[in-house]
Design a protein that fits this description.
By secondary structure, the chain is an alpha+beta fold. About 45% of the residues lie in helices and about 20% in strands. The strands form 3 sheets. Strands 5, 6, 7, 8, 9, 10 and 11 form a 7-stranded mixed sheet that branches.
Length: about 375
């Protein structure tokens, strides 16, 4: 293939004429030995480097001795001219077919690359990739499908940003229902997992933990939930234990405090209380003295009632024994001779008991 000396288009050196401009090619060209430029035989010098043609002869000198009349054709020349008339068009046809075949092969490869790029694109979730495909292949047969998918992803992205901004379970559930095949589904499930776990922990109940494990058996917090559930099972206070604890506290309040009885106080504790109403290492006598301070001149008697909202928990100690902690509201009722004074007080109280239901510590803070 060479560049046509007239129009510069690519053409076969065997072509009779240039298919672009009609310039005669076969037998009418020479190549500059200095710079390689393709020139016609009618050019005495190379138009690029001005080198002389090795084959050029001036027309005047070539025709000095030419006879005034046309020389008779030699026998057989017509036959040779006929073969040339057949050979040149045939050559052009072959060149055209060859060029067409090469173009078709090139176009087929382009289409295969485009199809492969399209298949990979449809697995992506970034709308920008789809926009780049449309810019690179504006006349692709996949344009409508790519545009539809791009619009869907843009809408999905906006919905996800709204759900994240809201941060509610309802928003994430609505997104999951609307886009069940979304690449963000895993992130959505993770958000729901975290929300459910926070709710289960805040309730601090075995039922809430069981519900979380039912909804998320393979969730991120499933192992922690199972451990909490086992701990709750080990530290669950039975009805018998609750009854024993309440009985011990009621006896202590009714006798050691209400009657200021040091012996009853000693029966409820193990020698000393670690702490009693802010006093460390409280003895039975000190507990009775605390109770006597409540007996004013007009106070005839004391009575205590533990409300039903009492919460009791069991703790497993390092020595594998149990310890009970209790938070409760306590009503103190006073029998007074002076009816103008308050007849009752309410305390926010807490107590700790050992495995033998002996009171280890107790505190009472009057509520406003």
């Amino acid at each position: 293939m060479i560049s046509c000396p007239e129009c510069g288009q690519r053409v076969s050196s065997m072509a009779g004429t240039c298919p672009h401009c009609g310039c005669r090619i076969s037998g009418n060209i020479w190549v500059c030995p200095e710079c390689g430029t393709v020139c016609t035989k009618g050019q005495a010098k190379c138009p690029k480097c001005n080198s002389p043609s090795p084959e050029y002869t001036e027309p005047e000198k070539a025709n000095l001795h030419t006879e005034p009349h046309e020389k008779p054709r030699k026998r057989g020349s017509r036959k040779r001219i006929g073969w040339k008339c057949i050979l040149i068009p045939a050559t052009l046809v072959l060149v055209a077919l060859s060029s067409a075949g090469a173009y078709l092969a090139y176009q087929e490869k382009v289409n295969e690359d485009e199809d492969r790029e399209f298949e990979l694109l449809m697995t992506a979730s970034n709308p920008e990739f789809y926009r780049q495909f449309l810019l690179s292949h504006p006349e692709s047969e996949h344009c409508h499908e790519v545009e539809a998918r791009m619009r869907q992803l843009v809408g999905e992205k906006e919905e996800w940003e709204k759900a994240c901004s809201s941060g509610t379970r309802e928003a994430y559930e609505a997104f999951a229902r609307k886009y069940p095949g979304s690449a963000r589904r895993c992130m959505c499930e993770s958000k729901l997992d975290s929300l459910d776990w926070c709710e289960a922990k805040s309730k601090e109940s075995g039922e809430a933990i069981d519900l979380y494990l039912k909804e998320h058996p393979d969730g991120r917090f499933a192992e922690e939930a199972a451990e909490i559930k086992n701990t709750m099972a080990r530290t669950k206070v039975s009805p018998e234990e609750r009854s024993a604890i309440l009985g011990r506290l009621n006896d202590f309040l009714a006798n050691a405090i209400a009657k200021q009885d040091a012996k009853q106080a000693a029966a409820a504790i193990d020698g000393k209380m670690q702490e009693f109403c802010g006093k460390p290492d409280a003895t039975p006598e000190q507990i009775a003295a605390f109770a006597k301070d409540k007996m004013g001149k007009d106070v005839l008697g004391l009575h205590y009632e533990i409300r039903q909202d009492a919460r009791i928990g069991k703790i497993r100690l390092a020595d594998k024994t149990n310890c009970y902690e209790m938070d409760f509201t306590l009503d103190e009722i006073l029998s007074r001779t002076d009816t103008s004074k308050p007849a009752s007080k309410t305390y926010k109280a807490s107590a700790r008991l050992d495995s033998q239901y002996r009171i280890i510590s107790m505190d009472m803070k009057e509520m406003p």
